[in-house]
Write a structure and sequence with these properties.
By secondary structure, the chain is α/β, with parallel strands linked by helices. It is built from nine helices and seven strands. The structure holds zinc ion.
């Protein structure tokens, strides 16, 4: 018997996307399988880590500088597995990240340099996860700084005017995909790339306490989200459309939009045959 599914898979894909994360490993616990799927389909991705995760341990005697260096190495290895074109580390303090003007300027520099169509960042409105637990303050700060950097700062040449004067022209980001949302509205099918997400997570050896359970944990998570769209693996996001896309409109991933795009694609195929 077919089980009715609640939603359809999200199909829009940015040509260029940037993941903005608070810590090394957030991007891999977060949207890594989606990033890998988009990259496999031809997108170019860039990862920005606001901190180097220098407080991500439980031994007060460990040297934070050494830990940060180790975690940057781990994140670069993980990013290579996912297929990002590169990683930027902003070297902000782990555990004390603030959505302040200094962080927003750093993010605007990254956005105007790489010029992504979409930004993926942790949902800043989540203080408590609906499944239980508190969302790390750094995740909230990084998410809110990403939102504020996207709109209005990156697109406004008069925000941080020395940037535009120095050659970093204003840039419009079309969409935000908010990661770890309590209220997701799109689900990306990731059956082909969930293995890369798990491999990328294994690269964060200093952070994985139960490596034997990692794969089953991740497969459980993606299966939960996959059930929404009738597949074995998906990642869920809260999509915020800032600029309409001609092919899809502002609603983002509705069945009507999917049918319309499919019809347009057929028309284009017929016209070019
Ligand atoms: Zn984190």
């Amino acid at each position: 018997m077919n089980v009715p599914v609640a939603e359809i898979a999200h199909f829009w894909r940015p040509a260029r996307f940037m993941v903005i994360a608070a810590h090394p490993d957030d991007a891999d616990f977060g949207p890594a399988a989606t990033a890998a799927a988009w990259i496999d389909a031809g997108s170019v991705g860039w990862l920005v880590c606001c901190t180097s995760g220098d407080a991500g341990g439980e031994d007060p005697d460990i040297d934070p500088g050494e830990l940060g260096t180790l975690r940057e190495t781990e994140q670069k290895a993980a990013a290579a597995i996912v297929g990002y074109a590169g990683v930027s580390f902003l070297h902000q303090p782990d555990g004390a990240l603030e959505n302040d003007l200094a962080l927003r300027e750093l993010l605007v520099r990254e956005i105007r340099t790489f010029r992504p169509d979409a930004i993926l960042a942790t949902d800043p409105e989540v203080v408590f996860h609906s499944g239980g637990g508190v969302n790390h303050s750094d995740h909230r700060a990084a998410g809110m700084a990403a939102v504020d950097a996207v709109y209005p700062a990156a697109r406004n040449p008069m925000a941080f005017p020395w940037l535009a004067k120095g050659g970093l022209a204003a840039h419009v980001v079309r969409r935000l995909y908010l990661v770890w949302p309590n209220d997701p509205n799109v689900w990306v099918e990731v059956e082909a790339t969930v293995g890369r997400k798990i491999d990328a997570l294994r690269a964060h050896a200093s952070q994985i306490r139960e490596p034997d359970r990692l794969e089953s944990r991740i497969r459980e998570w993606v299966a939960e989200d996959g059930a929404k769209i009738g597949v074995t693996a998906a990642e869920a996001f809260r999509l915020v459309v800032i600029e309409d896309d001609d092919d899809e409109g502002p609603s983002g991933g509705t069945a009507e939009a999917a049918a319309e795009v499919a019809a347009n694609t057929e028309e284009v195929a017929a016209a070019t045959d």
